[in-house]
Write a structure and sequence with these properties.
Structural class: alpha+beta
Radius of gyration: 15 Å
CATH topology: Nuclear Transport Factor 2, Chain: A
Oligomer: single chain
């Protein structure tokens, strides 16, 4: 049985993604995102749309997570979808989760969905993300 592989452009983007995560610096993230990228949060019913919003959320969450590490990578047969298993801590709450990332043919991230467990870890993350993003979201709604 052969291992599934990512499309070459998606693999290059994913390699760059891992470099940004390791550096905990998402400044260059917008160049990896499709302009119509979507972020699907484990805390929100509706997805967040557009590269600027996706970049804002991911820039914030990388600062909230402590002891963040990826453990496994699963690639879909189409070569344009990957699932990354991770663990992290928010304050005294441990959590595990997955990032489900879909790439376009050019290798840009078009869809980024996160699932997290346990509920106590998700709640801690949601509270801290809300605290950090509230000033931006309030200003944006005006």
């Amino acid at each position: 049985m052969s291992a599934l592989q990512l499309h070459a452009n998606a693999a290059a983007t994913l390699e760059r993604w891992h470099q940004l995560v390791a550096a905990r610096d998402f400044g260059p993230l917008p160049e990896l995102l499709h302009p119509a990228a979507v972020f699907r949060s484990p805390m929100a019913f509706r997805p967040y749309e557009g590269a600027p919003m996706v970049a804002l959320i991911l820039n914030t969450v990388i600062k909230v997570f402590e002891d963040f590490a990826y453990h496994r990578q699963l690639v879909a047969a189409d070569g344009l979808n990957v699932v990354l298993e991770f663990s992290a801590r928010v304050g005294d709450r441990q959590l595990k989760g997955i990032d489900m990332i879909r790439f376009d043919e050019a290798g840009r991230i078009i869809d980024f969905e996160v699932m997290i467990r346990p509920l106590s870890g998700l709640q801690a993350l949601g509270e801290e993300m809300g605290r950090r993003l509230a000033p931006f979201l309030t200003a944006k709604s005006r």
